[in-house]
Design goal:
The chain is about 70% helix and about 0% strand. The protein has about 200 residues and is mainly alpha-helical.
């Protein structure tokens, strides 16, 4: 959607590559901030970790490509950063609750690979703040999730009658497994749908 917005505004296709690079830089910055938050008296450790991450060939490849994987990396690093803040905060603050809501919302939109990190964040929140959260804290967490990501899940429920789109290639009607003879076609289509 970010790429479509850039193209709609008249940006050149190369702008999509720069968007991916910016997302890669955000991923590196979030990892550096996470390490800085964990070891504030060792700034060299944060800088070294960020530099080592920037030198990873896989991250360089993804960040230089037009793909949703660069967004997934940035969101994963953001969720990691927010999780460490939650784990180390003595009590929930409005700002941190809002950061939780926004990072979860973006994670729910970015890619399904962010879902395990969302679950880890929810677990850390439950573990750290189970006795400190009240009903009023649901607004700064749930509000951004509903506003930022809610439309996607409503759209999927209306279009596909499920919260996530089916994993079938576009334009190919899904095979329904009704007999053993259809097993090969069903498995082939399922494997193609994963890619």
């Amino acid at each position: 959607l970010l790429s479509a917005g850039l193209l709609r505004l008249g940006a050149a296709p190369v702008a999509l590559r720069f968007l991916s690079i910016v997302l890669g830089v955000i991923a590196i910055a979030c990892v550096g901030l996470t390490v800085h938050h964990l070891a504030p008296r060792k700034p060299w450790l944060a800088v070294g970790t960020a530099a080592a991450m920037a030198l990873l060939p896989g991250l360089q490849f993804v960040s230089a490509s037009i793909t949703d994987d660069s967004l997934a990396a940035a969101v994963g690093a953001l969720l990691l950063l927010v999780t460490t803040h939650v784990a180390m905060a003595p009590a929930p603050s409005r700002r941190l609750l809002l950061a939780v809501g926004c990072s979860v919302a973006v994670g729910l939109l970015a890619k399904e690979t962010a879902l395990p990190l969302v679950i880890v964040l929810a677990g850390v929140i439950t573990w750290r703040w189970r006795h400190r959260l009240g009903l009023r804290d649901a607004v700064p967490i749930g509000g951004p999730i509903v506003v930022i990501a809610g439309w996607w899940y409503v759209r999927n429920l209306v279009s596909f009658h499920r919260p996530l789109p089916p994993l079938t290639p576009l334009g190919v009607p899904p095979n329904k497994l009704r007999t053993a003879a259809q097993l090969r076609a069903f498995l082939t289509q399922s494997l193609h749908g994963l890619f």
